[in-house]
């Protein structure tokens, strides 16, 4: 395994219920076998949809697997679930559904979608029994629906846009910030207009003093928006202190910030929406939408802090992933407490102050296989570990117990890739050949990026 480090100062057997010796459940006295799904009279099925399975599906699956939602089929009713029951075991056994990438050995997070062993075995046993329906009178109480997020700002890209640069195009669109007083972003949702081509979305808050410089970039590009590889200005303006408002990646879901926190936005700001398009022939135009909830005040001002090795980004220490190699690992650690004034320019935190990590996320591309964020040095704490990376299921994970970071602690990121022939993407129906890969903005390049949501103590 190649390892490169850097330092930067910046179930169970099925139980036949009520078996009679010499007979098996689901078999009548004449020896004819009934379908398990009709076993609602006489011998009851050991596990049924209404009594046992529906509650699991409602809690862990129906949020995506319901009519009109993003999953390819519904599990919202008995008819829906029984129709696809035979397809469920493969995903359940592999642990890929429901999708919950974090390793529970690292930590616990809010809104956990994962199945425990008992629930997984219950579903497997139900399928093995033939997906019995049971008695609707056994239905569990209706699940309590989460309170819907209420947004007070609704922004949309100014016009539909079809990317023309292949294979990847980064294009930014400027949207006016409508609030006339200082406010704080406490929730953000991104709805991609054309999911087939949207690789990721990042919303930045351009401060008022830089607004004209960004408008000039927009005016200079004849197409809607302007090209912006690398950041909201495409490297044409010093944007190192432009705060993130939020982001969307495949698998991401709308959500609110940790309670009592929010990201500050000044009146007169602009929202720069960076769209990373992975261009496909024949794809339709995109007009993505961003919804934002604001508050007039919060208990603690927050920032989203991107974290990586700048030497990888700049190329002075290449993040090389050689063609044909598996198990390529790069890692990086740094004490970031001395750079807090860059993140909190209004003086909220000074160099060397402790700060609190409330949520963590990782970002790699398609050759990634594993990634982790942790604290080392003064303490040894796992923040996020994704042992089986899946580009299509990324997200930000809110810690059930926020972690305080003190001077001397180092934030550490580690990523692993597989660049062998079997792990290459398919483009236009053709699997690509391995090539040397470095840090880059394109889908065919790679990244090792951590994002942590932080506040003061």
UniProtKB/TrEMBL annotation:
The keyword Repeat does not apply. The keyword Oxidoreductase applies. Keywords: Disulfide bond, Monooxygenase, Oxidoreductase. InterPro entries: Cu2_ascorb_mOase-like_C, Cu2_ascorb_mOase_N_sf, Cu2_monoox_C, DBH-like, PHM/PNGase_F_dom_sf. Residues 357-449 form the Copper type II ascorbate-dependent monooxygenase C-terminal domain. Pfam families: Cu2_monoox_C. GO terms for molecular function: copper ion binding; dopamine beta-monooxygenase activity. This is Copper type II ascorbate-dependent monooxygenase, C-terminal domain. It comes from Nannocystis exedens.
